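Practice problem 4.
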């Protein structure tokens, strides 16, 4: 559902509406068969706006795509070539020669449309030069509007009052405007509704505002390709959907024109789906940082009595430990809500009931949690490479050799000392620790990449669930193993901090442990089969059992 309660749905493939053709301002010559929309020069007089609308003077018209006068009525361009005339179905007017007006004009020209850009003053040299680069034709506002049935209003809301409103009646007006801040209030109307109020006999469609001028000029490849549209006029909406597709974007119908209030807010959104996951991960990080601070600073210093020693590790070693543990916790938190959902479905014996809101919210933020976790895990890998040495994690390496030696302090003083010559070769635990970390990170990258919409779109549902579920669990087990082999000697029956607090490698595993314990019963064939049956539509207390034949 849209924010306004408007159904969000993909606009269905469109058939060319007859009404659109018949209401085009430039009248096509009726005897022409449909496949001869591009007319040859001898019909120029019958379709050119200047001739079909005698009251419109073409004096303002500066130049066409090739710099020649497109009004030439003898049907030949200045260079003597035969001119291809405009198909009214593919003729667009754009009001406003600003960044957006020019960008969308260029895009339509590239898509094979004839575009008339209407300016308040088309005789400015600078504007002429800028518009020339788009391949569109620069005219006065009235001329442009007279030339096309579809008019893109690429001027700010504040200037709507100054548009040639009389000429805009009966047209399809595409309102592309955005706001600089969210506006609300009892009497608030969107820009598109305001425009509809000014041109009441026109058919206003909200659209294209989610694309920036930059995106239009650069192919719109970055970000979403969806264009949200809204209008009170179904035929106009269909026509605009065709135009959206013609430019290589996907129209998404948000319903009536009132939905323009939400559509105009879309460019002002600031990561709405990320706020909660970021807050959750940050909360986990802060909690674990405080825990680590007690373990590694307060406690160690209490035990050693040396209060100068551990503070220097706050910036990197502590941080690195904490982001590693946060990453494992977050990864486990990606899987725990799915497990809770499975138990609820088993308990209720149906999948046709709503989960509690907290669980619903949690399920919806798994993708963001996963990507944040990938960021933390990558950061952890980078920092670890910087300081993992036989000196810092001696227990992961083959034993070093201790030697007795005389150390010369100064000319008069020598000292007998025991020095350790560290062995830089990893022992078997160290090797498994490293390998498990690398496997886990590699799988997490695969998970992260496959959750990007452009990649997800290339995967079948089976491939997607295999990666996100099966490989995800392997990643969690690999990450847990990485942690277990790091803390091997201390994992079990060991308490740090005066035998009161668990140590980092231990509490890193708590959520993962809970997830694995919850998962094991669900893997038992009878439970798994029953859950799959429920997910195919079976209801324990209902009539809705889906037979295998139905599913087939
Ligand atoms: P802009 O560069 O300021 O251009 C606006 C144009 O409006 C002017 O060049 C002017 O063209 C025309 N205009 C008509 N009546 C006017 C008046 N009374 N006073 C001033 N100008 C008047 O703005 P823009 O960036 O192209 O944006 C145009 C519309 O597109 C806005 O509603 C904006 O919200 C929307 N939009 C822009 C972007 C973007 O990336 N720029 C993205 C999405 C939506 P003439 O002087 O030739 O008449």
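Answer key:
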């Amino acid at each position: 559902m849209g924010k306004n309660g408007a159904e969000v749905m993909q606009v269905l493939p469109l058939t060319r509406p007859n009404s659109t053709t018949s209401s085009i301002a430039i009248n096509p010559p009726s005897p022409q068969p449909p496949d001869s929309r591009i007319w040859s020069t001898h019909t120029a007089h019958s379709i050119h706006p200047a001739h079909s609308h005698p009251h419109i003077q073409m004096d303002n018209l500066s130049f066409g795509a090739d710099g020649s006068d497109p009004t030439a009525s003898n049907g030949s361009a200045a260079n003597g070539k035969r001119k291809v005339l405009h198909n009214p179905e593919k003729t667009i007017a754009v009001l406003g020669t600003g960044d957006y007006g020019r960008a969308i004009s260029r895009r339509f020209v590239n898509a094979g449309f004839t575009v008339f850009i209407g300016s308040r003053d088309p005789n400015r040299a600078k504007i002429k030069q800028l518009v020339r680069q788009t391949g569109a034709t620069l005219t006065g506002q009235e001329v442009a509007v007279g030339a096309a049935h579809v008019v893109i209003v690429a001027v700010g809301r504040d200037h709507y009052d100054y548009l040639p409103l009389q000429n805009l009646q009966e047209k399809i007006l595409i309102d592309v405007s955005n706001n600089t801040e969210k506006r609300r209030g009892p009497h608030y109307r969107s820009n598109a509704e305001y425009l509809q109020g000014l041109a009441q006999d026109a058919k206003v469609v909200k659209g294209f505002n989610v694309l920036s001028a930059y995106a239009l000029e650069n192919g719109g490849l970055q970000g979403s390709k969806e264009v949200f549209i809204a209008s009170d006029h179904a035929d106009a909406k269909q026509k605009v959907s065709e135009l959206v597709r013609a430019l290589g974007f996907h129209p998404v119908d948000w319903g009536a024109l009132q939905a323009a209030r939400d559509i105009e807010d879309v460019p002002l959104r600031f990561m709405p789906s990320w706020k909660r996951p970021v807050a959750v991960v940050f909360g986990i990080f802060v909690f674990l940082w405080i825990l680590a601070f007690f373990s590694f600073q307060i406690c160690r210093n209490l035990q050693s009595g040396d209060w100068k020693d551990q503070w220097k590790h706050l910036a990197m070693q502590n941080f690195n430990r904490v982001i590693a543990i946060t990453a494992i916790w977050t990864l486990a938190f990606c899987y725990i809500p799915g497990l809770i959902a499975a138990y609820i479905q088993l308990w209720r014996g149906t999948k046709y009931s709503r989960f509690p809101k907290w669980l619903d919210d949690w399920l919806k933020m798994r993708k963001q949690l996963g990507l944040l976790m990938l960021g933390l895990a990558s950061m952890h890998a980078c920092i670890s490479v910087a300081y993992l040495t036989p000196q810092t994690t001696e227990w992961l390496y083959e034993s070093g050799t201790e030697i007795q030696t005389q150390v010369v302090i100064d000319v008069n003083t020598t000292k007998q000392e025991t020095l350790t010559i560290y062995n830089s070769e990893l022992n078997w635990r160290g090797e498994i620790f490293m390998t498990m970390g690398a496997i886990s990170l590699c799988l997490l990258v695969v998970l992260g990449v496959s959750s990007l919409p452009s990649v997800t779109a290339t995967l079948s549902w089976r491939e997607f669930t295999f990666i996100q579920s099966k490989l995800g669990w392997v990643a969690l087990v690999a990450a847990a193993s990485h942690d277990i082999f790091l803390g091997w000697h201390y994992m079990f029956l060991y308490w740090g901090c005066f035998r009161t607090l668990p140590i980092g490698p231990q509490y890193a595993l708590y959520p993962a442990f809970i997830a694995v314990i919850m998962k094991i019963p669900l893997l038992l064939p009878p439970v798994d089969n029953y859950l799959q049956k429920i997910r195919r539509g079976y209801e324990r207390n209902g009539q809705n059992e889906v037979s295998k034949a139905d599913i087939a």
